[in-house]
Amino acid sequence: MVTSKRERLLKELEELKARLRDREAALPAHSVRPHQIQEIEELEEEIAILEKKIGEISDH
Fold first, then answer.
1. For 26, left (φ over 0), alpha (ψ -120 to 50), or beta?
2. How many structural domains are present in the chain?
3. Tens-digit pLDDT profile for residues 10-48
4. Residue 58 pLDDT > 70, yes or no?
5. By residue range, what is the domain housing residue 29?
6. CA 22/CA 31 separation, integer angstroms
């Protein structure tokens, strides 16, 4: 069960990282809007949380 949960979290992590790369690539060179930065920050927070959960699973 631990392995399947870890695998699910890893898959979710990869999906979030892909979304983050897409958001970063979509940023204009000039005139970045606050909501664009907020989206990136929220994705980064979600990624950090998932990485922590994965680390906790790996430690057991």
1. alpha
2. 1
3. 999 999 999 999 999 999 989 999 999 999 999 999 999
4. yes
5. 2-59
6. 18
* CA distances to 6, 11, 32, 60 from 43, in Å: 19, 15, 17, 26
Distance CA 54, CA 49 (A): 9
**How sure is the predictor about 60, in pLDDT bands with cuts at 50, 70 and 90?**
low
Rounded CA-CA distance 51/44 in Å is 10
Give how far Cα 37 sits from Cα of 19, 30, 34, 53, Å.
Answer: 13, 13, 5, 25
pTM: 0.86
Instruction: Give long-range contacts, CB 8 A cutoff, 24+ apart: 31-36.
Output: none
* Phi, psi dihedral angles at 28 (to 5 degrees): -70, 155
